[in-house]
Amino acid sequence: MPLVRCPRCGEDDDLSGSRRDDRIVITCRRCDTVFDRDTTPTCRLCGSTDLEAIHTSTLREAGRGEQWAPSGVRVAWFCWDCTGRDVTSPAPVPGPNPPPGNHDDLRGLRDR
Questions:
Q1: Which of 16, 26, 37, 101 has the fewest CB atoms lying closer than 10 Å?
Q2: Which residues, 6 or more positions from 112, have their beta carbon under 8 angstroms from its beta carbon?
Q3: Contact 77, 41 (CB under 8 A)
Q4: How far is residue 75's CA from residue 21's CA, in Å, rounded to a whole number?
Q5: What SS3 class is residue 23?
Q6: Would you place residue 112 in the very low, low, confident or very high pLDDT band (cuts 50, 70, 90)?
């Protein structure tokens, strides 16, 4: 399932993009259509947008001496519709899967 398609001709390969302010503008080289890319995370398995971002690990880098310093957080997306795991990555894992991060009932925590 391609991440981006031209809304006019359906092209998904011959596209170029640029960042303008807080949006991504895509140009289709096939039909010269210019459009904004939807940046809503979407499940690569079922196409749903009912996703949950879960921090699965902290990225570390060498700090001073023998210490390690945090440099970022890895986020995995869990799909509530198909129960897929890491569904925005190039290698999504189909469900049924529990949400990453050892949460027993993450959906119960969503409204808190």
A1: 16
A2: none
A3: yes
A4: 24
A5: strand
A6: very low
